[in-house]
Design goal:
By secondary structure, the protein is an alpha+beta fold. The chain is built from 6 helices and 9 strands.
């Protein structure tokens, strides 16, 4: 059985094809022509959540019928690629995990909206929860200890500010020496600035940014985006050892 999914067409996009069969020895993904096992924790978290929500699937024309229990036995072969550098600071893991979750949810007849799917994608890559939507998206921190209410919500769709254009200049396609996951872990453990940023800066800045997006106030939007970028780089330098993504 074969299906494919790619997100809304844009200059930067991630494309995924998947097959499932009883005859695959293990689930795996071919990314950038390199086979990667899906045995890792973040992949398994997503697969476990999707399988628990899977529904029956039937294609009468092709004579295919898969029950909810069958999904537990099936392994997946996934071919994944994006048209921008991987692991170079352009959120390739977020795009990949969002595409993976959305595509498998559609295949497995999971009856969840984007908001609930975002909670699943977040377990694979934090920023992946925001990548399920188009337009402007907010990642809600949530209050539950199990993270069930840490989801993404769409503030405005892609048509809200259609004359806003983002230009990305790729100065290096080389992979980062420090992954986002390990880098953020070091930052949380060693940076004093990240604590101040989380408690004092981010909550106020989110409110200001939401208003700038709502009113399409570009000067305010640009100022906030630049200030936040500068502070995030300061947080990286405040980490021990410093998180320097590219030389």
């Amino acid at each position: 059985m074969y299906q494919r999914h790619s997100g809304p067409r844009s200059p930067l996009h991630h494309h995924l094809r998947r097959r499932q069969s009883l005859f695959y020895r293990r689930p795996h993904v071919a990314q950038r022509q390199v086979e990667v096992s899906l045995s890792g924790g973040r992949y398994q978290n997503c697969l476990r959540e999707l399988r628990s929500r899977a529904g029956d699937f039937e294609d009468e024309q092709k004579g295919i019928k898969i029950t909810k229990k069958d999904w537990e036995k099936l392994h997946f072969h996934i071919v994944s690629y994006n048209n921008f550098p991987t692991a170079a600071g352009l959120a390739s893991s977020a795009a990949g995990l969002a595409c993976l979750v959305f595509s498998l949810a559609k295949l497995m007849n999971v009856k969840e909206d984007h908001s609930r799917l975002s909670a699943i994608a977040r377990q694979g890559s934090g920023s992946a929860c925001r990548s399920l939507y188009g337009g402007f998206v907010k990642w809600v921190m949530g209050k539950e200890k199990n993270g069930s209410d840490s989801i993404a919500v769409q503030l405005a769709d892609e048509k809200h500010w259609d004359d806003l254009v983002i230009i990305i200049a790729v100065v290096s396609s080389r992979q980062k020496e420090t992954s986002s996951t390990s880098g953020m872990r070091d930052t949380v453990e060693t940076s004093m600035l990240i604590q101040h940023r989380a408690k004092e800066v981010v909550p106020k800045r989110i409110i200001q940014m939401e208003e700038a997006i709502k009113t399409r106030d570009f000067p305010a939007f640009a100022h906030l985006a630049s200030a936040d970028s500068n502070q995030f780089h300061a947080v990286c330098l405040d980490t021990l050892p410093p998180n320097i993504l590219h030389e």
